[in-house]
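Reading a protein record of the kind used here takes only a little practice. Think of the row as the fold of the chain written in a discrete alphabet. With that in mind, consider the following protein and its fold in token form:
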Amino acid sequence: MSMRIPKNFAVAIAAGLAATTITVFTQAGADQNSDTPAAVSQADAVFAGGCFWCTEADFDKVDGVLETISGYTGGSVANPSYEQVTRGNTGHYEAVRVIYDPSVVTFDELVDYYWRTIDPTNPNGQFCDTGPSYRTAIFSRDTSGTRDCGSFAGRAG
């Protein structure tokens, strides 16, 4: 059985390159014998998977995820209200910023997990949530992170 991925999903991945940030914090040159704990590496990515509260709850279960933050991304209105977004005229996605420790969980593992929590065949929402703000997408400024998202789509399901 072949899975068909909506064209707008690939466009959303590309658009996300400009819509979000990914930051990595490392402690360079730390003394191995120091009593100071090593800094935790951090990276982030943004996943739109329908209702952001559901997506947030899914990622909160993953070892290595340090924090999840619900919000909106990808739209044309600065700081939109919930009412503006749900009316469907701002272009925003409900999304979750996932801050994670890449030494515990990789971006690829998060994408693989994401594919198992959404229905990528529905271009108009997720499960009982329908409308433009419930579309699915992966946003990452790091092009190495988004390079293989399509290959994950072929493995989903």
